[in-house]
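hey so i finally got around to running the thing on that chain from the lab meeting. sorry it took forever, my laptop kept dying and i had to restart like 3 times. anyway pasting the input first so we r on the same page abt which one it is
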Amino acid sequence: MEKLLAEVAAELAVHAKTDFLTLRATCDSGYTDHRITSGLSEDDPDIWRLKSLAALGADGNVVVEMRVESDGAFTALLTDGIDQSTGYPTPSYTVVFEPRPRHVIPPYERTEVSATGPLAAVEAELGVPLPAEVHDLYRSGFSDFGDHVLLPADEILTVRKHLLDNEAQLAHDPGNWAEPIPYTAPRDAVRLVGHHPLWVPIVRYPSGAALCVDLAPGPRGRVGQVIQPSLACYPLELLADSVTEWHRSPERPESCGMKGHYDVTDYEVDVVAYLGSEFPTLRELGLRELGDADLAPLASMADLQDLKLSGRRLRIDGLAHLPLERLEVTATAVDVPALERLTRLKVEGARVELPNLPNLRVLDVSRADVDVESLPQVDHLTLNAEQWRRCTMHTAATTLTGESSLAKALDWAESLGVELPRRTISGRP
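ok and heres what got predicted. didnt touch it at all, straight out
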């Protein structure tokens, strides 16, 4: 490891225009994420690529903070088990105690299914019968719908497992735990989850998207409806009420656009009224530099899931009825309403007192004035160092902000009961 670090130091020293540079990096199996700062400041010296860095993580994940003098001499602290985010202006550090699913899916009642035919094994695995029209489709001999094809019956369970495994992997990254699902369909027709065990894939596109028969619809949906789960920049969509309806006019995902998204910087409050009247179906909205503003005109946006705001004194109490799942606010004053569906909340700048938020899972008040002793129980909590000293809450994941020292971040983790490895290596090229 000393030789590998020396190679990194040699590459960095070429760019040193101050007494020293600081490298913060995460390396794992060829993947690298890093940021370099100059001297005692957080200034970025515009060093974007380090060819020697990838080799540090060849044998597994390595988190490193490294000081490199102008002559190449270096001291590096290496660890693992903590996520070091190198975003500007200072890093943040996250420890995951217990993985969490992105969406909690209640168990469903399994039944004995004794069907025959090509889908018998699928039904036996599901413990739920498929609609008769799905059996008819698989007996019909149709398999080709242009550039998309009907999945062979003996591949359905393999593709289903792959989709569920992909969703399970997200349980290890708290950044995904409360992500809203982009959705274009009538409200409550489809469950807003990443993937459900009773979404049965039957059609595959070259893009990787899969169409599924939905056997666990939302309260306003229909068993057997055809949906496209959210994938990359494709939203979750309801395509047809049944396989028969879809089969008559098979619909394919044609674009990868971010439908229902709007982001604007404007000093005029009039923009709020304009958006509320002209864009009632927006799902995502960002409004910055609003000054003092009453956001009540947005109350007509009945599909709004994701709202990001910045300004001075912001009034958002008139939005309590909206299906907001994520709210980010930077303001000098704001009152957060009791948003029933809210799963993720970030508040910066303001003094904030939180109401009852029954579905809140992810909370970041590290840059807000808040009583940490009375915070609601969440899965993932982000605080600054001073707040953590007063907080006694135990969560599945924790994040520390405002601290630029990896050594101090490891001390913080130890104060929470997690003793992570530390290895210090010094040398020169």
